[in-house]
Amino acid sequence: MLTRRARAAIDESTLRAAVAAVEDPEIRRSIAELGMLRSVSTDRKGTAHIEVALTTPACPLRDRLRADVTASAAAVDGVTGVEVTFTTLSEHDRLALAQRLRRAQPGPLDSGTLVYAVASGKGGVGKSSVAANLAVALARQGKRVGLLDADVWGYSVPQLFGVRRSPVAVKGLMLPIEAYGVRLMSVGFLVGDGEPVVWRGPMLHKALEQFLSDVHWGELDVLLLDLPPGTGDVTLSLLELVPRAALLAVTTPQPTAQTVASRVGRMARDMGMPVAGIVENMSTVVCGDCGTPSALFGTGGGRRLADELGTELLSGIPLDPALRQACDDGVPVVAGAPQTPSALALSALATRLPAVRRSLAGVALPLSVVG
């Protein structure tokens, strides 16, 4: 409870308006609009009593919501203390909320959201770390960003972001988990830690459909899809489900990785998907002692792939100790060590992407991204 000397009589309409404007940290809309604000009252001592109904009894952001409500109420003139109590939305209210959220905003595939399918031909080239850090870099530049971990069998977004909890579901509508300013969804949030996913094709296709249509992504400027390596069922399903996407192919300098990645690029082209460009990951390896870069994995793979697919080599991302440590620690390097060579290269890639997308024929950009 906050305590301070009363300054003036409390205007309860002002108090209610202040609290009503507080946003739910997961849905990003005001608690009044969501029907979560139940009661606001004061007593003779100047204490504000506020009741809020949570979407679920086990709401993972309860403490953050309590802090936000407390801060808003405490700022009202005359309030000397704040007591916040929680209840839970009824089943009827949860159903109404889910219906309201589905009606309120278009999905990322029905709006002006830019969609990038981050792909590679083979595993081990660092595709997921590129997707994760690119998402955080875009968010740090002011974009509203979502990241869908579609690498169902080899999901790594939970590890890369240090997230180990399940998403909240409201009557069949899942709320993405937010970390480092990015809205996340991964099958790894829905299974036990380390549990393998043994789904077949039809189940995979249905799961991907639900991740796109039954997740409340909200308004997004950019949605990144972290595809599994290769040209299998998941990749084919996603390319069919998101025809507005542009491919961002990740390779290493090695001819083996470049050759296999070219198959994904050709498949995208055959399906009418534009190729936004190529990212050459591990372009150099930076010595942890002296900082000297070396071409441990060879040179030229990214350039050869770009020439083969008729697109641009957008960036060469060095492998440095900070990037490796960041992946292990669950802290994206662009957030945890933003001045390291890898982080600077990833941030520069994020800056370059909108201009690249503008150059693709037939793609209309929302003003929030163009600007």
Automatic annotation (TrEMBL):
Top-rank taxon, per record: Bacteria
CDD domains per the UniProt record, alphabetical: Mrp_NBP35 (cd02037)
PROSITE patterns attached to this UniProt entry: MRP
Domain MIP18 family-like residues, every copy: 14-84
Ligand binding (ATP): 121-128
UniProt-recorded Gene Ontology molecular function terms: ATP binding
Keywords: ATP-binding, Hydrolase, Iron, Iron-sulfur, Metal-binding, Nucleotide-binding
Similarity annotation: Belongs to the Mrp/NBP35 ATP-binding proteins family.
Quaternary data: Homodimer.
Function: Binds and transfers iron-sulfur (Fe-S) clusters to target apoproteins. Can hydrolyze ATP.
PANTHER family the UniProt entry points to: IRON-SULFUR PROTEIN NUBPL
Name this protein carries in UniProt: Iron-sulfur cluster carrier protein
Native organism: Prauserella oleivorans
Lineage of the organism: Bacteria, Bacillati, Actinomycetota, Actinomycetes, Pseudonocardiales
